[in-house]
Amino acid sequence: MGRARRARKIAQAAAYGGGVGVAGLGALGALGYGILRVEAMMARRIVGQRFEGAPSDSGDYGSGSGAALRFVVLGDSTGVGMGADHPHQTIGATIANGIAAFSGRPVELTNVAVIGAESPGLDEQVERVLAAVPEPDVAVIMIGANDVTHRIDRSVAVRHLEMAVRSLREAGAEVVVGTCPDLGAIEPVPQPLRLLARRWSRDLAAAQTVAVVEAGGRAVSVGDLLSEAFSAEPHVMFSQDRFHPSPAGYARVAAALLPSVSAALDLFGERSTPTEPNLRRGESVGPLAVAATRAVTQPGTEVAPAEVGGQSRGAHGRWAVLLHRIRPTVPAPVHVGAAAQGAADDGAGVRPGTDGTAYAPVGTTDDTAHDTVGDAVLR
């Protein structure tokens, strides 16, 4: 069965309360599952120990005229910012600062994400966030990794995510979901566990995408966004536990989400002047399940609701648009000598890191990347 069909099946089972097996383990067999248990124990020895807590990033960001934009974050440890050293290094804080800069308005961030959260835990998070912020303007949800590692039934996980998106949409919020990361990209995890983790992660991410778009939200593929950087500079892009992102890793994820959040808030007028998909970048409008399947293999890809001929659905279900928005530049590590470090200290365009490296701006890997952040967020 292809991933598109599996995604539709999982999403349909979620909608009707069915089940498709615990994290896809049904066809694996007892012997294979036993091997995986042993390798999972090996992986836990390789991957560092869990952190105790994470910085609290709830608060006010930016300044300007007008009422503050109400921004809420839900999800798991990536939403919390486990691995960040400072509240301003989290995904939520980075996006809040970006929204404030592009809108010219202050942003009030309320973060209710929970370390170790699984998708069923989103029910309680939605209740808490709507009690604190009854009418949020935009919400970001980061969820999925613990559903895979804890073997949560995928249809159950997807159903709770879809309910969370619908509840937030009913409260008036635009919703952007960072789908399940590709756990097969975590290099300390041995084979064949990595291969299976990749399949489970991508299947869940595709099903999440279908459910999120059906509920009126936007899904952004996190995928293996950090895998290449992890291979090149694991001590910089990942935190000391070798599993959660470092501040530089969170900046990369936030850069993938910020353009979609900005578009959801209509900061650049896309609602009044819709942009056509850029075929040169592989963007397109087509059946939702097909778009979801393509997105999981292309990190940073957005999938959102679309219409064809004024209709939201076709013969193959919901229409969706697949977009490769150009991302803002993010910090990347560069090793510097004494002279360059002096320039960094003088504010000459290089910001020193805490580990003897410095961070300099780098562009997106997209070949059609623009040089300005304004162009980056527009597309």
From TrEMBL:
GO molecular function: hydrolase activity
The keyword Transmembrane is assigned to this record: yes
Extent of Basic and acidic residues compositional bias: 367-379
Residue stretches spanning the membrane: 13-36
Keyword Hydrolase: yes
Cited InterPro entries: Ester_Hydrolysis_Enzymes, SGNH_hydro, SGNH_hydro_sf
Segments for region (Disordered): 343-379
The protein's name in its UniProt record: SGNH/GDSL hydrolase family protein
Keywords from the UniProt entry: Hydrolase, Membrane, Transmembrane, Transmembrane helix
Record-annotated SGNH hydrolase-type esterase domain positions: 73-252
Species annotation: Terrabacter ginsenosidimutans
PANTHER family, A to Z: SGNH HYDROLASE-TYPE ESTERASE DOMAIN-CONTAINING PROTEIN (PTHR30383:SF5), THIOESTERASE 1/PROTEASE 1/LYSOPHOSPHOLIPASE L1 (PTHR30383)
